[in-house]
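assembly run, all chains below
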Amino acid sequence: MKRNALQLLFLLATPFLLFTNCNEAPTETNSDTASGPPNIIVLLADDLGYGDLSAYGSQSIHTPNIDALAAAGMKFTRFYAGSAVCSPSRASLLTGKFPLRFDIRQHFDDREMHLPAGTLTFPRVLQQNGYRTAHIGKWHLGGIRIQDFTARTAGEAANPGPLQHGFDHYLCNIEDPLVRPELIRERKLYREGGKTLVRNDRRIDEIPKHWTEIKVDEAINVIEESRKADQPFFVNLWFDVPHTPYEPAPERHLSVYEKMGVKGDQLWFRSMVSHLDEQIGRLIDHLETSGLLENTIIVFTSDNGPAYQGSPGPFKGGKTDLHEGGIRVPMIAVWPNRIPANTYSFQTAHMTDLFPTLSALAGIEVEASDLDGMDLSQHLLEQTPLERGVLLWQMDLYKHFQNQGPKPTPYATTVAMNENWKLLADSLQTTELFDLEADHRELYNQLGQQDSIEQLLHTEMRSFLAAPRKSWKK
Amino acid sequence: MKRNALQLLFLLATPFLLFTNCNEAPTETNSDTASGPPNIIVLLADDLGYGDLSAYGSQSIHTPNIDALAAAGMKFTRFYAGSAVCSPSRASLLTGKFPLRFDIRQHFDDREMHLPAGTLTFPRVLQQNGYRTAHIGKWHLGGIRIQDFTARTAGEAANPGPLQHGFDHYLCNIEDPLVRPELIRERKLYREGGKTLVRNDRRIDEIPKHWTEIKVDEAINVIEESRKADQPFFVNLWFDVPHTPYEPAPERHLSVYEKMGVKGDQLWFRSMVSHLDEQIGRLIDHLETSGLLENTIIVFTSDNGPAYQGSPGPFKGGKTDLHEGGIRVPMIAVWPNRIPANTYSFQTAHMTDLFPTLSALAGIEVEASDLDGMDLSQHLLEQTPLERGVLLWQMDLYKHFQNQGPKPTPYATTVAMNENWKLLADSLQTTELFDLEADHRELYNQLGQQDSIEQLLHTEMRSFLAAPRKSWKK
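ok done. output:
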């Protein structure tokens, strides 16, 4: 199955390289399905670090399917998550705005917090333009506690969930203080996650499979339904892996690492990434056999830097930290025959850009002035370098430690970045200034040595923190 | 030209992935040349860091030709240079022994020091087995001062050079205290290196080309002569790039980085790596059009970690330092249809292993008991995991600083490594102990917490430092 997916990805990756020598080779037979709006799949890993994929230089994990995906499209080296923790990052992906715009400054605790009702989201725009939209997997944006979906089913008021934010369909593990913490504490989120599922506001019977595989099964079902209905789809497939709890993935992913003497959480972690890679291969394989791959845009990324067992690659810090290790994540964009294969991008890009960029690729005009994201479609299709403009981050202070070293000090809660320059601050008290082009490891603090740049970025920060915010709070 | 090389590499990389779907595709027409002993090319970069190739996760440089080479064979994640500086590492590559065995504990200053006469080298073994052996490029193992090759031409005694160490042919820039330091100081080693060349102990007229391109021209000439003579060849092609002096590479390699706002030495550095990549593409292209690629083993690696402008990837330290950044280097091994393509290896391997491994692949039996290297051919051909055994490093103390941060402390001059455990010491005074499998960034010093491992490695160190040495000293 993996081999089939890889075969096709290599075929897709090499037309201009290969088919000049290989005119007799079978070409895609599904060109008739390649007309019309493109399908869109966003694959989001959870706490996967920049250094956790072999395509991004991992020292310890081999991810052939994701690597093949990278070879079939454009691989970004400077793509930033919306935050260094979960919920704010996810909010930025769906809304195209920095999470502070919604006063989202920390990860949600599954209690009251939620993405504000009535927020314009990317799935809503696609839905309004004829797409079948589905969210599958981790949500972590509120509204799928038992009391929420029960209330909605009864026609009562509740915090908004995926159906209220533009999705026609969803399948999640129930995100409730009575359910999720236990699954995590007892390390059974993946192996027993199929026991506590909610689909479209209805709790469903157990699916006795691994949660990572249930998600891909559900994605395939949605894709098949869309294909039969001849409707373009948006599948928002948010994996929980490789976030804790560290659990052994199915056996086939363990032996390769056991042979290397890897043990404990690090062994489970690697097996989880390999399992993720395999399941993504299965999904790509299905797209191929269904003839849908050619007209499907696939984006793969992660919500923030690595926690505990993961690797930030060459960067400083990890999850909960605003140094590069916490926010610079893998990002791969594939659209066979449209986004050039085997390409590698140094373009600065940000999670908020996915909304305007994917909309533009789908031929949908969005009012971008209200968004923090910018349309990168020209860069994706033609490799045009674009000026990204100022990027901003804010989050509450976290002092957690990561496996990849103690959290770097000084701590920061606010970042402004313009081109190569990155200013970090605790609220508005500046702490560090780095030239990322010369010093991507953030080793040489240039605070006090670049007055005009510092001034410019500090002004941006101040405006950002002072700007009006829409909040979930009642 | 680049495209042709890439085309072929993709063809070679994908037979089992692709040709099942592409039976009509043209196969290599040169299978008649694929019999007989394999040709061997060792490509060695100078001061190229683990993080300086896109195939190894570079954030700043795109190396499509070397990446394609990696895709056509096996890419190692845990390959170690023989030292963290130049000459000892090169000595280990040619001799299959740790450089301390020859009392080589620092880089040579182009004056008296040299690889001891009569040392058994890898090219000597190949030469004795019918290979045409050529050394092209940086040598830095002594014996090619003006006084040396002049004396040899006159039949007088001199320090041994490439011809005395098993090479039938060589082309070098004169390595002399009167020549090299000026080229480096005035930053014209690459652009004017063609003015001060020595070939087979004769100074030759200027070749008015870039030194990196002169080397590849020479390699192509050697390859063509061998092909005409129907003799297998060993080309030992040691590039000077991206070692200082930082000089602009030809213009085509500058604009991509200038657009990103990169300036000064960092701009020259990146252009030099891109130029190296292009020239390697040109060499591969020539092998293809000559029909020789299929039966040629190609190894690509670097002599030590990055200096100044380069990147150690995720590792601590760089050149002159025995943390991973100084000694863990890229290594790619390609032999089309023999070494499986698109493979990725976690095997611990060392520069001394190239001698017994490449000999074994060439069908030559060597008396391995006298070598520190081990035969990895089974791993290359069949992906068999091998126990590498203890690895040892010793060098004089360097306190240089690198661009990628101040040199990490404590300093070490001796290292013993067994499986995941790495013990560092200053002479025999232990300084750090790391579990590299869990902590490849060397952040958690476990000295004092793993008594039996520490004891074992310290004993190895002691024997290593006390062992008899063959020296170049008169």
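The two ends of chain B are 50 Å apart (CA to CA).

DSSP finds 14 helices and 15 strands in chain B.

not gonna interpret more than that til we talk
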